[in-house]
Amino acid sequence: MKTQAKIALKFLLVMTILTGIIYPLLMTGLAQLGFPHKANGSLIIQDGKIIGSELIGQKFDSIIYFCSRPSAIGYNPIPSGASNYGPTSDTLKKQVAARRVLFAKMNSIPYESVIPKEMIFASGSGLDPHISPEAALMQVDRISQSRHFSITRKEELLKIIKDMTEAPQFLCMGEPRINVLLLNLMLDKI
User: Fold this and answer.
1) From its phi and psi, is residue 113 left (phi > 0), alpha (psi between -120 and 50) or beta?
2) Cα–Cα distance between 190 and 187 in angstroms, integer?
3) How many CB atoms lie within 10 A of CB 119?
């Protein structure tokens, strides 16, 4: 009996060291060597200050910026998750209706317009950093007017949207998308 307990404790110790220390250190080292930007959270640093991550959505309230997808968790990465409201939920229906009205009003488009789904529904994680090219294009007039863009600058913005549109992953998974934070940073450079 004592022999079995010793063997079990030795095995536990070896596996703890192997899977709890050696493996994580090895994977961290390989990630830092091969993909340092991604391994460190894809942080965007400007003037020595972290302004966000390419991987986590942020809230943009100002009319001079592109709006992000709504978040059920207020863009807080700690409790990442969805609202868990079902399709028959009155609360969800009210939220979607309010978001539809707000997006249409903010961008001076008819309420009956087809609004991209990501602008009226929160993502499953609450942290999605992307919107569709269609959602970005619907916001161009508002941004151009609020920034007093000339026609040339507006065309430049449209070109930026086209250039920053990412194809579906592996050309078949997902839909075309644009990272809102990166788009807003490019917008500030116009």
Assistant:
1) beta
2) 5
3) 23
| Entry pTM | 0.81
Q: What is the pLDDT of residues 12-59, one digit of tens each?
A: 999 999 999 999 999 999 999 999 988 888 889 888 899 988 988 899
Closest CA to 95 of 126, 70, 116: 70
Domain spans of the chain, in order of start: 2-37, 43-189
The two beta strands, 130-131 and 43-46, are: unpaired
Rounded distance between C-alpha atoms, residue 6 and residue 121, angstroms: 56
Up-side HSE of residue 59: CA atoms within 13 Å toward CB? 11
- pLDDT tier at 154, thresholds 50, 70, 90: very high
- Asked if residue 85 lies in contact with residue 91, where contact means CB atoms within 8 angstroms, the answer is yes
- Among candidates 66, 90, 80, which has minimal Cα distance to 143? 66
179 in Cβ contact with 166 (< 8 Å)? yes
Give the HSE-up count for residue 107: Cα atoms under 13 Å, Cβ half-sphere. Answer: 26
- For residue 163, what are the contacts with CB-CB under 8 A and spacing of at least 6? none
Radius of gyration of the chain (CA): 23
Which DSSP letter does residue 124 get? S
Distances (CA, A) of 27 to 12, 55, 61: 21, 20, 39
Give bridge partners of residue 75 from the DSSP assignment.
Answer: none
